[in-house]
Amino acid sequence: MEFEELYTAYSPKVFRLCLGYVNDRDWAKDLTQETFIQVWQHLPKFRNESSLGTWIFRIASNICLRQIDRSSRMPKAEVPFQVEDKNDDHKDEQMELLYKCIGMLEETDRLIISLVLEDLPQKEIAGITGISEGNLRVKIHRIKQTLTQKFNEHAKL
Amino acid sequence: MSMQNFDGLKNMWQQAGSGNDLPDAKEVLAKVEAVRKKMIRKNIFLITTLALTFAFIAWVGFHYDFELISTRIGIIITLVAIVSGILFSTKLAKVLLKPNDPTLSNSDYLQQMISFRNSMRFMQTKGMALYFLLLSTGIILYMYEFASRDLAFGIIAYSLTLGWIAFNWFYLRKRTIRKQEKEINEQIAALEGLNSNLKKD
Question: Are the C-beta atoms of residues B1 and A6 closer than 8 Å to each other?
Fold first, then answer.
């Protein structure tokens, strides 16, 4: 696959993952770029052991984790401001709330849930994160519940 | 807003675009090229600096006529100390130890970052001790030729120099190490926190 094709196909997904992690659009944009610079540099080493998407997500999530150099710890998002319940067309607001709720999770949980939201199979998520599938299943179940609950709590406000 | 279950959130997530936030592929490729060029320039700069320094050491060591061989050795040791000090505190340490394989799994990557910091800590403390030792030895050897000509001058010059070295060794070095250790320890603690969150149920 040509780099341009690959970028077009995966950059929005990588951007979502990064945005869920850092909760800042400019920062997430930088991280997306950084990810694809690394993708380009390591592409010759890609050996088809996993799918290309999984491989790119692995790089992206590591780039996110590396942000610990930039601030000693990623601040958890503040409790989201009240999102007004004007009507259900406000997709942007809902989306914003979703990102904020993800931002309230632990750093590593943010990455895991973003991968789940991308519909990656658990086996691949286990390969990206390096944790066992059994352990992951328990974790995912817990994070899903926490996230859904947080979202609905704040959406009601 | 209506109540959402997890699948609702998933739908929302997958439908969200990235807005106009992302540059197009050409822009990213241009950046890739810029990064590559910068790396080449950096390497050229590093190699040139090294070559010039060695030429300079050789020139100083062999150009002047000193009476004692200790003077020459002193100069060489001092310069070697300074150059390695600069290299290790800036570029070389990163080049040698940098964890640069983002294709590992998250848990291996975190582990790699932790061991990188442990090696950094080792290098900063042991490397700095070696730097001070070399620098002091170099200066003491270099001074000998001039100090030995006059006993009184020699005593004064050596006490001042040794006093300065002691101040650096016992005060400045300790303080710098404390500061760096604190920073690195905090980073390690943060990374270990991430790693244990990743592993726990």
Answer: no
pLDDT for A145 equals: 94
Contact A37 B28 (CB under 8 A): yes
Over range B36-54, report the average pLDDT: 79
**B103 touches A: beta carbon within 8 Å:** yes
B interface test, pick of A23, A39, A49, A68 with most B CB neighbours within 10 Å:
A68
Q: Look at residue B101 and tell me whether its pLDDT is greater than 90.
A: no
Residue B121 and residue B198 in one domain: yes
Same domain, B54 and B147: no
Judged by a CB distance cut-off of 8 A, whether residue B16 touches chain A is yes
ipTM for the complex shown: 0.81
Fold of domain A3-73+85-156: Butyryl-CoA Dehydrogenase, subunit A; domain 3 (1.20.140)
CA distance A122 to chain B (A): 14
Q: Are A15 and A29 in contact (CB under 8 A)?
A: yes
Write out pLDDT tens, residues B55-86. 887 787 777 777 888 888 898 898 888 888 77
Residues B118 and B42 in one domain: no
The pair of structure tokens assigned to B54 is 């060695």
